[in-house]
Please model this.
Amino acid sequence: MTLKLGVLVSGSGSNLQAILDAIKHDTLDAECRLVVSNKPDAYALTRAREARIPFVALDHKKFAHREAFDRQLVEHLKEAGVECVALAGFMRVLTPLFLESFPNNVVNIHPSLLPAFPGVNAQKQAFDYGVRVTGCTVHFVDNGVDTGPIILQGAVNVEQDDSVENLRDRILKTEHRLFVEGLSLIAQGRVSVKDRRVTIRA
Model:
């Protein structure tokens, strides 16, 4: 069944572009119903416009509190017929109000091998810690920060001559592939969750 997808963004939108490209090339059975950014000047909105995808700029600074912002966000997504929400570089912590509106249907991509290095600047956290291997994680979103059930993980080696910047770039390339793969599994109805453990059916 075609996944009715909403994508939330805050920045350049390279993961959004990977999703749109996969849909275009029939490697992801989904329809992007709406793109929403909390940053009105995010380049991701330009990507949506060029792809002729409906989009909304919803500036979180204009709302009195998180719940008010999330309530408006849910309204836009529901009006667009969205069933599954992908967080593609969305730099906001969602409230229970939002998550309860899309139970087990909010998916995030995080640039580390969770539970290691949650939160912001995960790539720099990993680099500064001196790990030999890091990567990215596709996971369902729960009420914690980067604590939801893990769907897929992709490893990226940290090279001796790495900088934070080129490590970030290599992780991002893995994100593009892995996020699409995770969403595709969901679209195929192959993903289920029980007691935090994700099962992927063959």
Remarks:
- The mean pLDDT is 97.
- The chain has six helices and nine strands.
